[in-house]
Amino acid sequence: MPTPEILLDLDHVTLRWPNGLSALGPIDAALEAGRLTAIVGPSGCGKSTLLRIVAGLLAPTSGRVAWRGREPMRPAFVFQDPTLMPWASVADNVALPLRLAGRSRRQSHAAVQPWIERVGLSGFERARPHELSGGMRMRASLARALATDPNLLLLDEPFAALDELTRFRLNDELLAWAAGGPTILFVTHSVFEAVYLADRVLVLSARPGRLVADHAIEAPPTRARDWRASADYARQCGELSRRLEAAAEAA
Amino acid sequence: MRAARDWIAPALLVLALLGAWEAWVRIAEVPQYLVPAPSLVATTLWTNLDSLLPSWWFTIRITVGALALAAVGGALIACAFALSRTLERALLPVAIVLQVTPIVAIAPLVLIYLDDTTAALLLCAWIVAFFPVLSNTLAGLRAVEPGLRELFALHRARPWQRLRWLLLPTAVPYFMAGLRIAGGLALIGAVVAEFAAGAAGRETGLASRILEASFRTEIPRMYAALALVSLTGIAIYGLFAAIDRWWISKWSGRGLEGIATAKA
Ligand SMILES: Nc1ncnc2c1ncn2[C@@H]1O[C@H](COP(=O)(O)OP(=O)(O)OP(=O)(O)O)[C@@H](O)[C@H]1O
Ligand SMILES: [Mg+2]
Q1: Interface of chain A toward chain B, CB-CB under 8 angstroms
Q2: What is the position in ligand 1's atom list of the atom closest to the CA of A49?
Q3: Cα–Cα distance measured from residue A34 to residue B234, given in angstroms and rounded to the nearest whole number
Q4: Cα–Cα dist A92/A84, whole Å
Q5: Closest Cβ–Cβ partner in B152, B161, B253 for A130
Q6: How many CB pairs below 8 A link A and B?
Q7: Contact, B103 vs B207, CB < 8 A?
Q8: Are both B11 and B142 inside the same structural domain?
Q9: Neighboring chain B residues of A108 at a CB cutoff of 8 Å
Q10: Ligand 1, atom 6: closest residue by C-alpha
């Protein structure tokens, strides 16, 4: 097997907030192109902060984030909150990144329509965010990210607010979509979700978050519902759980 | 209907107060040159309509004109301040000085410097009205949700895109709240400045009618003109409250409670 292409290098990245609180690191890690990497760790350990640093929204206090992709970085971010514009319709919200890229309203609406359908929001194109449930808002936020055709997709607990059925369905959707090759960095609180989705799980310690385990997931070539029920899946979840517990104690 | 129920209680209260006033004036036999009965004020209003209506129209024109200029000027200055901290540091003190100095103290100067009385009145009313629009709009432009700011940064929004699709929509409800305060202030500015001007010029407003009536101690006529000023103020307030409610419910489902209002 050829060594996978590195898309992004985290080189001794740390973050300290202006108030002196040390939030993260030092972290050294390399993201492999086309793979889905999950990040798990105790609440407040700096997972969202790490995602922001990777996206370039936050400069690390020390260390370096190096993009090694052949084409320039086209990031999309699903924030922990839906971050929708309250004055705009679902369609306008989902189409925003395309409009910022210079496409017309009509073009961008046509382009996002399939994504609105895929996240199960057809019929709500003209609704305002306040007319949606929390889960629906999150799905709109997801559609907005996917519609930009990113080469780096950053997801911060995107499914945490969803019911389990929708969550499972979107898990499978994400896998199907990810098979196309974009690199995904996925923060989750759920060990089960991490094992189901990820090729690799980075386990962070309690704040300031440091990498305490780099855990590979061994999955069948195509993951599907019945894998969720298998003994193999349960075993890997148990293993990851133990690593997470150890991480929470390693402060 | 909810709207009807909302109206009935205050309307009844006003009627009761007017009734009590009327009864008091009649029973205690208060002379009409001290306090006229509401019924007398109403008939005076009716018989003097010929002189009061044009004055009312004049006051309304000054008020609405000043308010329109305050809306445009306040919003534009706020945008300029939001784009440049330096500009804000340089000019905000001037705006504050204009705001905290009583308009009665400024009006005589304005009237000296400007030959055209109508322009001077307009400027005075504008001076009192623009500040709440400015300060509210500025607060709105700065109230952008951090998450949305990050989203726009991530997708490399250009400054004008950020202004048009993020800052301005965020500021709209704040701007409306400022406008609601400015409406009442523009009326006050228009009336006060006219008092300072005295009954000069061909076209004059309600303040001049009040001054005239006071020179001739025609108390019922003073009350009649005063009633028109109050009605105008109430109408302006009601109009903006209605626009606000309609706009905000349509716009975001967000109530007014969530929006900070910088008081004048
Ligand atoms: N703007 C900020 N200023 C100061 N401290 C902050 C700021 N934002 C976050 N923090 C702190 O940084 C730490 C990491 O925050 P972060 O949001 O990255 O955690 P997280 O791992 O995503 O947590 P969760 O799983 O609960 O979402 C937290 O302890 C938080 O208190
Ligand atoms: Mg987080």
Answers
A1: 52, 55-57, 75-77, 79, 81, 83, 85-88, 96-97, 99-101, 128, 130-131, 148
A2: 18
A3: 65
A4: 10
A5: B253
A6: 53
A7: no
A8: no
A9: none
A10: A17
Residues B50, B88 within the same domain:
yes
- The whole-angstrom separation of Cα B111 and Cα A55 is 59
Task: Tell me which residue of A123, A112, A147, A152 sits closest to A6, measured CA to CA.
Answer: A152
In a shared domain, residues B19 and B55 = no
Same domain as B138, residue B26 = no
What's the confidence (pLDDT) of residue A80? 86
Mutate which of A16, A45, A155 for ligand 1 pocket (most atoms within 8 A of beta carbon)? A45
Closest-lying ligand 1 atom to the alpha carbon of residue A45: 21
pLDDT in tens, A158-206: 888 788 888 888 888 888 877 777 899 999 988 888 888 888 999 888 8
Question: What is the extent of the structural domain holding B240?
Answer: 33-263
Domain identity same for B41 and B13: no
Token match 């975001």: residue? B252
* pLDDT band, residue B263 (cuts 50/70/90): very low
| Pocket of ligand 1, beta carbon within 6 A | A 17, 19, 21, 23, 43-49, 80, 207
| B138-162 per-position pLDDT tens digit | 999 988 999 999 999 999 998 889 8
Q: In total, how many domains does chain B have?
A: 2
Instruction: Give every strand in the sheet of A6-16, ordered side by side.
Output: A22-32, A6-16, A62-67
Is B164's Cβ below 8 Å from some Cβ in A? no
CA distance A156 to A75: 13
